[in-house]
Amino acid sequence: MPIDAANPVAPVFPRHVGMDQVPAHVPPELIRQSGLTFGPDFLANPHDFMAALHEKQPPIYYDVSPMGNMWHLIKHEDALFGLRHPDVFSNEGATPFPRDPDDYFYFIPIEIDPPHHRKYRNIVDPVFSPQGVLKLEGQIRQRANDLIDAIDAKVAARETCEYTEDYGRPLPVSVFLDIMGLPQDMRDEFVDWAVKLLHSNDRAIMAEQMGKITAYLKSAIEDKKANPDDGVVSCRRLQP
């Protein structure tokens, strides 16, 4: 379903995945399987892997991946051209997360091209501006202190603690829930969904987690329509 003037955010699917779905217009000499998207070499040492791309791959090539095929632009000037020409290198469907074609949605604003990209950026930009983040500082510090207190309690009880599980993962999720205006009692579930979604290259597992997240957010949106607040999900602060 292509984008058109009447329906500017119509979905484009299915995403090309694998060698048998390389579009006919892609020159065969530019097709690669570099392993950049969740490949074992990339996951083991991403910095060396990215440096080696400049030596082993052409400056522009088409990468075939189980997470989704895509063009890779290695040189700065080419990447800059791609960023400035969404008519050639569109952001639509750019993320590798699987979605239901019968209930398709975009990751906003990163999968929306200009000029529509800007209206969605206008919603979230104030939250992440220097002034917006400064307003959140006290709340973020409190969330961090609460997690540290929980770790201290574990240590006092001679229990073991693990930084990633007890602090690294729950802190950003707690802050995300505050910003979105969602309840903190969903934190552990969101952490579980995010870990399974972001740390898996199994599209079935990813699709399952996307389904859970989507179902919850749809329910939350309906609740915010009846009970608006200042969270991003509600967007009451943008209403006249």
TrEMBL record:
It comes from the Bacteria. SUPFAM superfamilies: Cytochrome P450. GO terms for molecular function: heme binding; iron ion binding; monooxygenase activity; oxidoreductase activity, acting on paired donors, with incorporation or reduction of molecular oxygen. InterPro entries: Cyt_P450_B (IPR002397), Cyt_P450_sf (IPR036396). PANTHER family: P450, PUTATIVE (EUROFUNG)-RELATED (PTHR46696:SF6). Belongs to the cytochrome P450 family. This is Cytochrome P450. It comes from Novosphingobium barchaimii LL02.
